[in-house]
Amino acid sequence: MRESAEARLGRPLGEDWLARFERERTKMLRSQLEPVPGAAEAVQRVSKAGLRVCVASQGKLEKTRLSLELTGLRRLFADRALFSAWSVERGKPHPDLFLHAASEMHVEPAGCVAVEDTASGVTAAVSAGMRVFGYAADSDESALRPAGANTFHSMSDLAGLLGLD
After folding, report:
1. Which CATH number describes the domain made up of 36-161?
2. What is the distance between the alpha carbons of residues 162 and 113, in angstroms, rounded to a whole number?
3. 3-state secondary structure of 32
């Protein structure tokens, strides 16, 4: 990522660029991040049905925990159900993170459903052999579908898509 950014800028980013970026991102998250409408209810519904839930994020666990706390979702996920691409050799669009999460959750990948909002995440989950729903309310549906997702626009629809209604 660093090489790509420096090539686009035509100059070095500096040694402290990542730390500065993370500080600025944290400030932005604290001031602007809001929960996805219906997300808490969807996770609770899935959990109540006896299905395991986890988060498999491209970001560091520290950022995932902060995002979940700021949106009121942290209480819905056990520590052992939070996974980061920083824990595997290759992040999304490779399947490594999803395969790791499935293994740690003691579930076969084919028995998993991933809810993703990026084409790289959809690609990773499909490559892992998972069924994928693409949350397209704030994402590019035209990128999610070709990557292999069945798209939806409201978290209140997720339980029905999973056959929980």
Report:
1. 3.40.50.1000
2. 9
3. helix
- Taking residues 95-122, what's their average pLDDT? 97
Residues 6+ apart with CB under 8 A from 164: 45, 46, 49
pLDDT reported for residue 127 = 98
**Model pLDDT for residues 112-124, shown as the tens digit of each residue:** 999 999 999 999 9
Nearest-angstrom CA–CA distance, 112 and 114: 7
Retrieve residue 109's tokens: 């990948």
Q: Where are the domains of the chain?
A: 1-32, 36-161
Residue 94, class by beta-carbon neighbours within 10 Å (0-12 exposed, 13-18 middle, 19+ buried)? middle
Q: Output 20-24 pairs: Cβ under 8 A, ≥24 positions apart.
A: 22/63
Q: What is the pTM of this model?
A: 0.85
Q: What confidence category does residue 2 fall into, taking pLDDT thresholds of 50, 70 and 90?
A: confident
Pair of tokens at residue 160 = 């029905």
Q: What is the 3-state secondary structure (H, E, C) of 43-61?
A: HHHHHHCCCCCCEEECCCH
Residues in the chain, how many? 165
Q: Give how far the C-alpha of residue 87 lies from the chain's centroid of Cα atoms, to the nearest Å.
A: 14
